[in-house]
């Protein structure tokens, strides 16, 4: 009994005494002028400890020494007081049986559905989730339109609708190739922009596509949501985690700017795949094998779909 709680030990002790007496719980309730519910609760290890009066009456009717039972009752109450109280439903019930009033507590464990359907819209993760859903639900526009009306900071996602076989797995789908953010102040990270409007940044992306060897900016659409800087970082992280946009992850470099002659860096993966002769990256040192990059793209889409269907 060393591993048992005080309440369990009390329940077993009462059950042993009842068995030795030859009485039933119903007989005990009748002789002790207690309700059957009170007696059954006193014997149940899952119910709260009984009252002092109930325990004394049970001990008297079972012709038992009350002292060991009192000690177990004290242990059970101390253990109950030390446990953190969950949001259980506690009812105080008063019953009258043969002229005797009995008061006891009935405690119902919290229903698991309380947690399942609890929702705090102001929790950070829920706020971010709502932003992601709102962005995905927005209308998609042609990339060239952005410069005319997207004149505020915000987040955006770029989608492909063309016929390039490299991107056939997601062409025309709601899976973004690239996600980014334009903060009202200078941001940090490759997905962020120094410009102050989404339209300016998307126009820069459009020119990058225009200078590519095998992509047409008219085959790209975007969705946008103008939100506070506070939510941008977490939202971009959530979008990247959920969709793993190819140009943010496996094939980096789409959002890079010309580093200038002072910093001659190797050509980024994206420019190795797509940069045309007029691109600022055309003269950079080649570090990647194009065939290997094409293979990486295929593996990326296969892994994403495989993970999504598991």
UniProtKB/TrEMBL annotation:
Ranges for region Disordered: 23-53
InterPro entries (alphabetical): Restrct_endonuc_II_Eco29kI
Domain of life: Bacteria
Single Gene Ontology MF annotation: endonuclease activity
Sorted UniProt keywords: Endonuclease, Hydrolase, Nuclease
Protein name per UniProt: Eco29kI restriction endonuclease
Species annotation: Kitasatospora cineracea
